[in-house]
Amino acid sequence: MRHRKVCRAIGLAPLCAAAALVGTFGCARGPAVSADGLALRRVVIYRNGVAYFERSGHIEADKVEFKVKREEVGDFLATLAVIEKGGSSVRSASFPIKVDDGKDNGDGDADPQPPPPRPLADEAIGPRRGPRPPAPPPKKNDNPNKLETVVLELDGKAHDLQVGYVAATPVWRPSYRLVIEKGGANLQAWGIVQNLSGEDWTGVKLSLIAGAPLAFEATLGTPIIPRRPTVTDMGEVIASVPRSETSLNQEPMAPPSPPPPPPLAEAATGQSLAQLEDDAEAEPEEEDRPSNAPKPKSDMKKRAGGGARPSTPAKAPSATRAAAPRPMMVEGGATPPGGIHAPQGPSAPRNLSALAAVAIEGGSTRYDIPLPITVPDKSATMVMLLSKSVPGESIFLFAPDGGVGDSQAHPFRVARFTNKSGGLLERGPIAIFEAGAFLGQGMVDPLPEGATTTVPFALERSLAVETHRDYTEEGARLSKIESSPIYVERDAVSRTRYRVKNGGEKGAKLLVKHPRNAQARLFNPPKGTEDNVGTGSALVPVEAAAHAVSDLTVDERQSYERSVDWLSPQADDAVRLYLSDRRAEPAVVSALRAAWDVRLSLTRALEERSKLTTEQNELSRSTEETRRNLKALEKNRTAADLRDKLTERLAKNSLRLDEITKRLVEVDMRVDEQRVRFSDMIRSIKLLAPPQPT
Predict the structure, then answer these.
(1) What is the 3 state secondary structure string of 296-311?
(2) Is it the case that residue 48 has pLDDT exceeding 60?
(3) Phi/psi at 667 (nearest 5 deg)?
């Protein structure tokens, strides 16, 4: 006792805690909340670091005193719920507060004074725009585990109370077993619960929530007085200050005297060790004092809110009450059933009434354990939540993973099952069993009811997969016609080809995890494809016979829109596709058909002009070459026959050039006429929402 007082005074609380572990001396560790006469009956644990505790009992007094750790007072007050089963009503709940008065607060240190507010002129009243003042530094010896007393004032002396509150608790964690059977699988779910509350959970009703409701740390037990701007009355102030007259050679003024030093706060360790030891002998420690003994006056004076009231002993429970069912005791550290050392897969429980009741409340899955549970302090336990037959199988999954090098060429062995438990399965490890043997382990991501998961647990090297990808542009669909321009949609096509080689003795069912382009769509996917755009992948099935090769093609297409020329092949393909669509607008179809007849004449004339122009260019080049040859042979008497042939060729070319020139003039006139007609016809066509492709 003497050493504990000394340790607390000189700031050696960590050493006290370390010594307490070996049983010599130390600061006692207790529950976050306790109350005489109200036993712990129910614990509901969430996945966000909090739990709901429920205490109940019969009280024959006009008040109930709760011992609450200082750091838990805010959460206790923020979540306290009192249910009056019988008797009178609850009046109020009172609790001490910490007052920062700059004096010794009873913990051996002084509370720091906050800085005074900055005075403001009358015209400066308004919202503060500057940075907030810094928070006062924490007290050196402020013990968050110190117990505060919260008194619940009651109206009358006969009460059947049920009190609930929220306190910090380690999250519960799930663990799964999947036993693959013929035609399905058996799914077992276990919940791992850790008790670090400071008290034993004896025969409590335990519930586990697969969800994380919003919960925050509350500071309702700490008084807060917001700072306010200070308005001062400066009296009459002359706006313009007259300038003084200064004479040369004047003696300098003496510097102002320094301000007096601020009063020093009383030192936390101002007493000697001998005095502390004497105080420790004369005054018992709080945790060593009986619960119903009054506190010394000296200690009561140190508390700002007055001394704690002595607790009233609770009435013993009546012997006529029904005996509680025998609790199920599971000590921490026990090897979980169905672990990896089991020679056979875990079997289903015989007593199905011991399994948790699964329900969905407010969008969260709740597991209620039907039998009372006992979890000693500083221990953990595993409780079976469910054991249920679900659709499942063992297949293969090709999903390249950067952390597994060989997965670029070989698929994983996977367990695939559907959640038919009636609620959400939280993320957790899973052990896979089949034919009485342990196959491997994997991780289950959060799995809603009815969803299917694929869990890899091993690598299969008897199957090999090759991947090849190419890109093209295909298709043309009418997108929009407005003010003469025509817009078409084309597809940027990405084709991924998977070649699966099966070197095993049995056929294999394989799922290929194809990385998806979120902006693209799957085009004619194989039957059974699961398109999971949200996860950026698609599971595509393929069958691989024994000692055979199977090919799989995944076609992804992404549409884009662009303006094209009316006479381009893309425009022709898009319009013809629209004209053949039964969902097309009749008026637009009629206008397009008439315009397309003119376009056909125009394109034929353009093709004819192109051919004539090409022939004209060839004849012009040949004629020019023939003339150069004749000029070179005009003085050669032995080349008379050659000159005659070249002369004849030149005459034919000249005649054909004249015909082509004449025909080009006619074709140009027809092209101009058809172009004008076509432009007039398409100017009145307007199409903004063509039918979408099926």
Answers:
(1) CHHHHHHCCCCCCCCC
(2) yes
(3) -65, -40
State the pLDDT at residue 281: 43
Q: Amino acid identity, residue 149?
A: T
Instruction: Give the Cα separation of 483 and 684 in Å (integer).
Output: 8
Q: Are strands 428-434 and 173-181 parallel, antiparallel or unpaired?
A: parallel
3-state helix, strand, coil in the chain (%, to 5): 25, 35, 45
CA–CA dist 501, 545 (Å, integer): 9
**Tens of pLDDT, residues 263-321:** 433 333 344 334 434 444 444 444 444 444 444 444 433 333 344 344 444 443 433 33
- Give tens-digit pLDDT for 6-20: 344 334 433 333 333
SS3 28: coil
Structure tokens at 478: 């009418």
Q: At what angle do helices 2-9 and 13-21 cross, to 10 degrees?
A: 140
- Of the candidates 481, 500, 595, the residue with the CA atom closest to the CA atom of residue 541: 500
Assigned token pair, 551: 């090919």
Q: What is the pLDDT of residue 308?
A: 39
Cβ-proximal residues to 200 (8 Å cutoff; 6+ apart), any chain:
374, 375, 376, 377
Query: Which DSSP symbol is given to 684?
Result: T
Scanning 515-563, the segments in alpha helix (DSSP H) are none
φ and ψ at residue 530, rounded to 5 degrees: -110, 110
Map residue 593 onto helix, strand or coil. Answer: helix
Q: What is the Cα–Cα distance from 330 to 371, expressed in whole angstroms?
A: 12
Asked whether the beta carbons of 168 and 75 are under 8 A apart, the reply is yes
* pLDDT higher at 663 or 259: 663
**Which pLDDT belongs to residue 214?**
66
